Amino acid sequence: MSVYRARAMCPSCSSEEEVWFYNGKIKPVSLIHCDRCKNLYDPADFILCLLDLRQNTTLSSTVVVNTVSL
C-alpha cells in the first residue's frame, strides 16, 4: 500500500492545495475546486511535490502562503 501526501497548484492563480495519493490515484476526489479563483482542475496534472508517509509522524493542514514578486 502506497500512501503519499501531495501539494497541487491551481493552474489559474497558483494557489496550493493538499491532496492524497493512494495506490496511484488521488483520493478522496479527482477534481479540486480552488477556493481563491473558483477554478475546477485535476490535481494529478499540477502536482508540486510528494511526501512519503512511511511513518505516522506528519500532520495535514492547509497553509496560506503569500508570495512577493520583485
Describe the structure.
It is a single chain. The chain has 70 residues and is mostly beta strands. The chain has one domain (3-52). It is built from no helices and 6 strands. The strands form 2 sheets. It has a 4-stranded antiparallel β-sheet, with no helix packed on it. Strand 1 and strand 2 form a beta hairpin. Mean pLDDT is 75; it is low at 56-61.
Unreliable spans are 56-61
State the helicity in percent bands. under 10%
- Biggest β-sheet, characterized? 4 strands, antiparallel
Shape: elongated
Order of helices and strands: EEEEEE
Bin the strand percentage: 35-45%
Mean pLDDT: 75
Structural class: mainly beta
Total of DSSP H or I helical runs spanning 4+ residues:
0
Give me the Rg, rounded. Answer: 13 Å
